[in-house]
Each structure stands twice: as structure tokens, then as C-alpha cells.
């Protein structure tokens, strides 16, 4: 009864977020992707919805059910993810980039399935030319009326330096960093929060528990912002 009468922490907030990998096609049956399972993003979407937020989850291809109360927009490429985010962002108070967005995509997408022996290099190898993808999080953070922007930094080394550099470069109030040895594809996650006041290491937590903790961390910062 008490819980039902207590206003939820994120009531009245619209949160747009990205999750999962992107898939950048090479030809009709092949493409470039990564090992992101989407678990952290989906756990966060669920926790945000349970905290009363209106959640739009722009998701790359994952094998996960959409959390109850979450609006999911399914995309494949970074450019599709960017467009889906931009359609939703004007009304949002918060943007959270959890997706592992491909930094590059093939410059050309073959209309037909590539044949093994066609257009090989003189050394017998094969070259795919890549072109940069848009940085969705940096673009949202630089909007004139930018929402409160949260980034993730999954690094394999130098976590403090790289995470704080990302926060400053993309002009984010909050970055959530972890060493990939402690996170990617695993159940437990050990993260450190980086904001303008310093670094805040959290203990190792399961992704659902961490997601609820991040709701608290976000709500506290939104109340101060
Ligand atoms: N991100 C994004 N669009 C991209 C690349 C990254 O929105 N094209 C977001 C991710 O969702 C994440 C944050 O930016 O929240 C950091 O992503 P990351 O790949 O760690 O940063 P990069 O700037 O791409 O740097 P690098 O890959 O060199 O570490
Ligand atoms: Ca990247």
C-alpha cells in the first residue's frame, strides 16, 4: 500500500535509450556486428519503466523479450538507430546510449550475394572499405535543448582515462564505465560512474540489480540538474 502511494522516482519522465548491437550489411546475407547481448540495456529499460518512466527502447537485433511497459523500436544499422532516436528525442528528458554501435559500416552494400572468387585482391585476399557511422550519443548531447545524456564506456584497459575522456569529448553529464573482462556477455557487472564531481565505483552486481541501482543514481542526479 505504501509503495502504491509513493510517487515513482521517474514518473513523468520520457527516456529514450539504445541497446544491443547494430548490424551493418555487406551483402544480402552477410554483415558486420558485435557480441552485445542487449542484456544491460534491456535490464535498464525494465527498471526505468518500473520506476514510472515512459521508455522508448531503440534496439538492434537481440534475442530478448521487450520488457513490460516499454515501447520498442527495432532497427538493424547505426543510421536506422540514429533516425529512430531523432524521431523520439524532442519530447525526452533523458537519453541513455547503451547500444554497442558499429563505429564503421561497409561503404558499399552489394545488391547480390558476393561470390567467393569475384573481385579478390591480387594477393588473394579481399578488401571491404569502411566508412564512419554517426555518433548517436554525441549528436543527441549536442542538440540545442539536449536531454540529460548518459553514455556507457566498455573498455579493455585504462578505464578511468578512457571513460572520463569520453564524458568530456561527448559532453555528457554521466558515463557508466566497466572493464569488458568484468561485463560483456556475463551475468554480473562491475561499473564505475563518472560525472562532473568525480568517479564512483559500485560493487559487482547482477545486471537487474545494477539496473535498479542506476535508476537511483540517475534520479538523484536529475533532481540536482
Ligand atoms: N555511441 C553512439 N554512437 C556511436 C558510437 C557510440 O551512440 N556511433 C555511444 C554508445 O552507445 C555508448 C557511448 O557512445 O554509450 C560510448 O561508445 P564507445 O564505443 O565506447 O565510444 P566511441 O566514442 O565509439 O569510442 P571507442 O569505440 O574508440 O572506444
Ligand atoms: Ca565505438
From TrEMBL:
It comes from the Bacteria. Its EC number is 4.1.1.36, 6.3.2.5. Keywords: Decarboxylase, Flavoprotein, FMN, Ligase, Lyase, Magnesium, Metal-binding, Multifunctional enzyme. Binds 1 FMN per subunit. It catalyses: N-[(R)-4-phosphopantothenoyl]-L-cysteine + H(+) = (R)-4'-phosphopantetheine + CO2; (R)-4'-phosphopantothenate + L-cysteine + CTP = N-[(R)-4-phosphopantothenoyl]-L-cysteine + CMP + diphosphate + H(+). Its cofactor is FMN; Mg(2+). One of its GO terms (cellular component) is phosphopantothenoylcysteine decarboxylase complex. Residues 10-220 form the DNA/pantothenate metabolism flavoprotein C-terminal domain. CTP binds at residues 103, 113, 134-137, 152, 166, 170. Catalyzes two sequential steps in the biosynthesis of coenzyme A. In the first step cysteine is conjugated to 4'-phosphopantothenate to form 4-phosphopantothenoylcysteine. In the second step the latter compound is decarboxylated to form 4'-phosphopantotheine. This is Coenzyme A biosynthesis bifunctional protein CoaBC. It comes from Fluviibacter phosphoraccumulans. The gene is coaBC. The chain holds residues 184 to 408 of 408 of the full protein.
Amino acid at each position: 500500500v505504501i509503495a502504491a502511494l509513493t510517487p515513482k522516482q521517474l514518473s513523468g519522465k520520457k527516456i529514450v535509450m539504445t541497446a544491443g548491437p547494430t548490424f551493418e550489411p555487406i551483402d544480402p546475407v552477410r554483415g558486420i556486428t558485435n557480441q552485445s547481448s542487449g542484456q544491460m540495456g534491456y535490464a535498464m529499460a525494465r527498471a526505468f519503466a518500473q520506476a514510472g518512466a515512459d521508455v522508448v527502447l531503440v534496439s538492434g537485433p537481440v534475442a530478448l523479450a521487450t520488457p513490460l511497459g516499454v515501447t520498442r523500436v527495432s532497427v538493424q544499422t547505426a543510421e536506422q538507430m540514429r533516425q529512430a532516436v531523432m524521431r523520439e528525442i524532442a519530447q525526452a528528458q533523458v537519453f541513455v546510449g547503451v547500444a554497442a554501435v558499429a563505429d564503421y559500416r561497409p561503404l558499399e552494400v552489394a545488391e547480390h550475394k558476393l561470390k567467393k572468387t569475384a573481385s579478390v585482391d591480387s594477393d588473394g585476399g579481399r578488401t571491404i572499405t569502411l566508412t564512419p557511422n554517426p555518433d548517436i550519443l554525441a549528436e543527441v548531447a549536442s542538440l540545442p535543448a539536449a536531454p540529460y545524456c548518459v553514455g556507457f564506456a566498455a573498455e579493455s584497459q585504462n578505464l578511468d582515462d578512457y571513460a572520463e575522456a569520453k564524458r568530456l569529448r561527448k559532453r555528457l553529464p554521466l558515463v557508466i564505465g566497466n572493464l569488458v573482462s568484468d561485463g560483456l556477455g556475463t551475468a554480473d557487472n562491475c561499473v564505475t560512474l563518472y560525472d562532473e564531481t568525480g568517479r564512483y565505483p559500485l560493487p559487482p552486481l547482477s545486471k537487474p540489480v545494477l539496473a535498479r541501482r542506476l535508476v537511483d543514481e540517475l534520479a538523484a542526479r536529475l533532481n540536482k540538474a
